[in-house]
Amino acid sequence: LLYPVRYLPSQTKAPCLLTVTTEGYLKAAQIFSEPKIGTIYETKSHVGPVTSLDIDPMVRFALTAGEDSMLQLYDLNDHFRSVSKFCGYHSSITASKFLDGFTILTGSSAKNLRSWDIRSPEDPKCTDLKSFKDSSLITSLDVHASRPIVVLG
């Protein structure tokens, strides 16, 4: 299995790597100049495997999604404090991606694409964008940097 890994730069301390596990954990590890990695943070974020991990473009939030149909939002500037945990679907969330600092796209095993407005992270607003009846489940998604194009896999 391949697990998502994201690089988290830092201006004031050693940079970090974020990753997730099949046991439902979000983990952060500092990268030091010598060849070692030290775990600085670990939390149980989901019941079951975490399927997706992303960091918003302004490096304020980390987002995890899982087979438990939940999305979890963490504040990267406040010791990975959980900001919001919300139910995304009645099926596994298989892909998630920040469009900008306030909008998230998610895909599910039920072949649905949704948009989430998180300007109020405690009360995110969901919009159904598309349901794909005759295709495979959405396993990944990405967005074009300057055009309104979404690529699904």
Descriptive labels:
52% strand; 153 residues; 14 strands; single chain; 4-stranded antiparallel β-sheet
Report the β-strand fraction as a percent range: over 45%
Strand order of the largest sheet: 1-2-3-4
Enumerate the spans where pLDDT stays under 50 for 5 or more consecutive residues: none
Largest sheet: 4 strands, antiparallel
The whole-number mean of residue pLDDT values reads 79
Number of helices: 0
First-residue to last-residue Cα separation: 17 Å
In total, the number of strands is: 14
Order of helices and strands: EEEEEEEEEEEEEE
Instruction: Provide the structure class.
Output: mainly beta
Overall morphology: globular
User: Helicity level, as a percent range?
Assistant: under 10%
Radius of gyration: 15 Å
3D architecture notes:
The strands form four sheets. A four-stranded antiparallel sheet has the order 1-2-3-4, with no helix packed on it. The protein has a four-stranded antiparallel sheet with strand order 5-6-7-8, with no helix packed on it. The model has no long low-confidence stretch (mean pLDDT 79). It has strands at 5-8, 16-20, 25-31, 37-44, 50-55, 61-66, 70-75, 81-87, 93-98, 103-108, 112-117, 125-131, 141-143, 150-152. By secondary structure, the chain is mostly beta strands. Helices cover 0% and strands 52% of the residues.
Topology:
Layout: E1 5-8, E2 16-20, E3 25-31, E4 37-44, E5 50-55, E6 61-66, E7 70-75, E8 81-87, E9 93-98, E10 103-108, E11 112-117, E12 125-131, E13 141-143, E14 150-152
Antiparallel strand pairs: 1-2, 2-3, 3-4, 5-6, 6-7, 7-8, 9-10, 10-11, 11-12, 13-14
